[in-house]
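ligand=zinc ion
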Amino acid sequence: MTRSQAPMPENLRHQLRAGQPPERSVDCPYCRVAAHQPCIVRATGRRLTGGQLHPQRRSAWAELTACCPTCQVTPTVPCHEDGRARDSVHARRYAEAEGSAA
Ligand SMILES: [Zn+2]
Ligand SMILES: [Zn+2]
């Protein structure tokens, strides 16, 4: 008897908590907090509240969850321009990530 096992799709939308920005589902590359933790101000240790987070985290989230319509990369691949990796993602990638997270 053979049993076929369908591969489980990778799903990054696990355990999104109500009221949290979807960007919080990834680690923050700037202040280095773990997923689902609020960003902190590194100098003071103060937590950012009210949905504030570092733009680097937003960028990392878009990179992880969405394809980029501008430079045609797949999720997890950094945006690039003129053959060089960009520090942040293209604006349209944010829109793409927001669309897939909605
Ligand atoms: Zn942060
Ligand atoms: Zn791009």
